[in-house]
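re the bet — no i am not wrong, look at it urself. input seq straight from the record:
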Amino acid sequence: MSDVYMCQVVKNLKLNDTTYAITVISAGLAENACPGQFLYIKCGEGLMLRRPFGICSVTCETLMFVFEVKGQGTHWLSRREPGDVLDILGPLGNGFYFPDGNIIVVGGGLGSPPVLFAAQSAKRGVTAILGFRDKSRVILVNDFEDVCDKVYLTTDDGSYGICGQVTLPLGEQLKYGEFDAVLACGQLAMQQAVAKLCERYKIPCQVLLEERMGCGVGACLVCACATHKDGRDYMSRVCKDGPVFDAEVVVW
C-alpha cells in the first residue's frame, strides 16, 4: 500500500564518481515494498516534480536506493547526510512475481540495483548477469555475490569480467541451464535483446521498464508505453500498470 513517508537518511554511500546509494529508515515503507516497485522522492524545495528511484535492497526497517547524478534534483539528493529527512511517496507500481524454480536476474548499468532486491527475494537459486560500460561503472558486485549462486559480469570494453554484452553469458545459461524465469532491468535495447533470447529458449521473461514520469500514479500519462495483449494494442502506464511487464506484451 503506497503512502507518503518522511524517512530519515541513515547512510549515503558514494559508489563511484557519479553514483550513490542512500539508505533510509522506515519500517512501514520497508514492510510494504516488493521487488520491482519504486519510490517517488522530493528532491529539493525548488523542484515541483518528484523523481522515481527503484528499490535496491530492503531490511525489516530500512530501504536502499541507488541513483546517478544527472541534474539538479539528483545533485541535491547526493548531498544528503545521515539525519536528513526525505519526503518519499511509495512503494509504487507492480513488481516482479517469482516462480518456485531457479531464476536469472539481468541488470544493465543502473538497472542492476532493482534486480538485487529481486535476487534477495527469490524462492530458489539465483544466477545474476550484470553489464556495465567499463570497470569504473561496476557496482554492487559483493551484494550480488552474497545472495546469488553465480554472478557473471560483462563490460563493453572488456576492462572487467567478460568483454561484450549481457546476452553472451545469458545465452550460455539459457542453452545449458534449467531456469523458470528471467527478470531484467536496464536500457531498452538491452531488455529487448534479453526478451528475444528468452523467447528463443522459451523461458518466461519479465522486464522492468524505466520511463520519464510526471505524477507517478497513472494520472498524467507521461510514461505511457505501447503494449499488446489478446491481439489488441494498448498504451500502458509504466508507473501504474508496470513498471514490471511480461516481455511478451511489450511493443519493442
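see?? The first helix runs from residue 27 to 32. told u. also The mean pLDDT is 95. so pay up
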